[in-house]
Amino acid sequence: MIRHLLKFLTAILLFTAVSDSASAHAIWIETSANGVKGKPQQVKVFFGEYTKANRDTVARWYSDINKLSLWVTQPGKPEKQLQLTDSVDFYAASFTPDADGVYTLVIRHPLKDLFRTYKLEYNAMAPVWVGAKSVTATPVKADITLTTPANQFKQNEKIALVVHFEGKVLPEQEVEIVSPTGKKETVKTNKSGALEFIPTESGRYLTEVIYRNKVAGTHNGKAFDTHMKIATLNIPVL
């Protein structure tokens, strides 16, 4: 009896740990913020828990996340899908800019399976500036986005972000900012959907926004009570 009870309690603890870990997971894109015309731009896509520097192996990515697609918006051209290569704990890709302007890497992935009672949609983006720095980026095709007008990010200098939802700015929205060492800060957007923060460390910062819509429905035959749309923007700080 005691042995069965211990097994039962252990199973509950393991399930709780896995569930809590999964809920803190995110997809993010890593690449240089600046590219060079005619030179391949290397890109990495991760899924894991950024605050703990955990990067899950692609084979263990939750649900059908390893079936995601990576796209790049191009100046004056249609969006292009990039080929992904499994590199154990990330997907690798590359593209070669052929003109000056802003290229934006984009992921839009609605999850096949529910997480608990949540329907999840993951989005990730990463801008790449090539040549001229004052060019406006082509709008990203995603319901929820994090964007920045900057082309270079430096330690102890302000970084501005704007959150859009369905094409409109999203005011009073919380954005989580995670430093390279895992420190977390939550900042709210103003009435214009904008916010600023100062990076006090060099390295990559992950910014994440989660929009929760308390709406009930069914997804692939299972009931959900909340539709969550998540977006990340990974920022390399010099």
Write up this protein.
With about 240 residues, the protein is mainly beta. The protein contains 1 helix and 20 strands. The chain has one helix at about 1-25, and strands at about 25-30, 35, 40-50, 55, 70-75, 75-80, 85, 90-95, 100-110, 120-130, 145, 160-165, 170, 175-180, 185-190, 195, 205-215, 215-220, 220-225, 225-235. The strands form 4 sheets. Strands 2, 5, 6, 9, 10, 14, 15, 17 and 20 form a 9-stranded mixed beta sheet that branches. It is globular.
Briefly, what is this?
The protein is mainly beta.
Taking all Cα atoms into account, the compactness measure Rg is 19 Å
Helix fraction?
under 10%
Task: Give the CA-CA distance, first to last residue.
Answer: 59 Å
The overall average pLDDT, rounded, is 89
Number of strands: 20
Individual helix count? 1
Question: Topology of this structure?
Answer:
Elements: H1 2-23, E1 26-30, E2 34-35, E3 41-49, E4 54-55, E5 70-74, E6 77-82, E7 85-86, E8 91-95, E9 101-110, E10 118-130, E11 144-147, E12 159-165, E13 168-169, E14 174-178, E15 184-188, E16 194-197, E17 203-213, E18 217-219, E19 222-224, E20 226-237
Parallel strand pairs: 2-10, 10-20
Antiparallel strand pairs: 1-3, 3-4, 3-8, 5-6, 5-9, 7-8, 9-10, 11-12, 12-13, 12-16, 14-15, 14-17, 17-20, 18-19
